[in-house]
UniProtKB/TrEMBL annotation:
Binding annotation for substrate: S26, G27, S28, T29, D81, G82, A83, D84, K94, G95, G96, G97, K121
Keywords: Isomerase
CDD domains documented for this protein: RPI_A
Family that this chain belongs to: Belongs to the ribose 5-phosphate isomerase family.
Naturally occurring in which organism (per UniProt): Litorimonas taeanensis
Enzyme class: isomerase
Functional note: Catalyzes the reversible conversion of ribose-5-phosphate to ribulose 5-phosphate.
Pfam family, one: Rib_5-P_isom_A
Assembly notes: Homodimer.
Documented EC number(s): 5.3.1.6
Residues forming the catalytic site: E103 (proton acceptor)
Reactions this protein catalyses: aldehydo-D-ribose 5-phosphate = D-ribulose 5-phosphate
Cellular component terms per the entry's GO annotation: cytosol
The protein's name in its UniProt record: Ribose-5-phosphate isomerase A
Length: 234
């Protein structure tokens, strides 16, 4: 167990209240949170979870967390999720686990997003972590060329893009939504807002891993404590 991730996950429990509808993120840090949340549910906490991936749904069921269909709710109170990179403006790169589309749908619909990371995820400028971009497999080469242009036009020089492969090497990794993932190594993304906007305009791009203006709280786990940083959007 990674103690820093565990400390971040435990600190996120402070944001959970009885009666909440919770977006449950994906990835190793989110899974630690789900385990912790399961213990609170066993102790009497009443919440319902909306998983952002098939894997998260399995973990939540195993942890004893009641789930609710995303189509059956009118609001989501809080989402707790991990991230691959976090910059000082709370912009994120997500999608290292290929769950970015559902994660973004749920984060966008949530009143609050709490991001839990260890301090290795904090960066001055996003881009060292290859940016995951979820694409429709149809005419993927044409979409990839448009992505390359969009990245170049917004200042990400020499972006190298690779099609993510399934772990069993059977072919391209297929997301829960039936799409493929292109990972673009940008080194630096100087204007995340512009890059996000440019990528969103490409028809074959289902979603990209830049999460802008979504995170309200970043919890950074260390070995002996967690630091909670809140951003006011007023
Ligand atoms: O698609 C996966 C997600 O965006 C994860 O939340 C992200 O990759 C961070 O995962 P981890 O907590 O395992 O580093």
């Amino acid at each position: 167990m990674n103690v820093a991730k565990e400390n971040a996950a435990i600190a996120a429990l402070e944001f959970v209240r009885d009666g909440m509808i919770l977006g449950l993120g994906s990835g190793s840090t989110a899974e630690i949170f789900i385990d912790q949340l399961g213990e609170r549910v066993a102790g009497g906490l009443k919440i319902q979870g909306i998983p952002t991936s098939a894997r998260t749904a399995e973990c939540a069921i195993e942890a004893g967390i009641p789930l609710v269909d995303a189509d059956k709710v009118e609001k989501i109170d809080l989402t707790v999720d991990g991230a691959d990179e976090v910059d000082p403006a709370f912009s994120l790169i997500k999608g290292g686990g290929a769950c970015l589309l559902r994660e973004k749908i749920i984060a966008h619909a949530s009143s609050k997003m709490v991001v839990i990371v260890d301090n290795a995820k904090l960066v001055d400028t996003l881009g060292a972590f290859p940016l995951p971009i979820e694409v429709d497999p149809f005419a993927m080469a044409l979409t990839a060329e448009k992505i390359y242009q969009a990245l170049k036009d917004t200042g990400c020089r020499e972006a190298q893009t690779v099609l993510r492969q399934a772990k069993d090497k059977s072919g391209p990794l297929v997301t829960d939504g039936g799409h493929w993932i292109l990972d673009s190594k940008c080194e630096l993304i100087p204007s995340p807002v512009e890059t996000a906007r440019a990528l969103s305009q490409i028809p074959g791009v289902m979603e990209h891993g830049l999460f802008i203006d979504l995170a309200d709280v970043i919890i950074v786990g260390e070995v002996d404590h967690a630091k909670v940083m809140e951003l006011s959007r007023d």
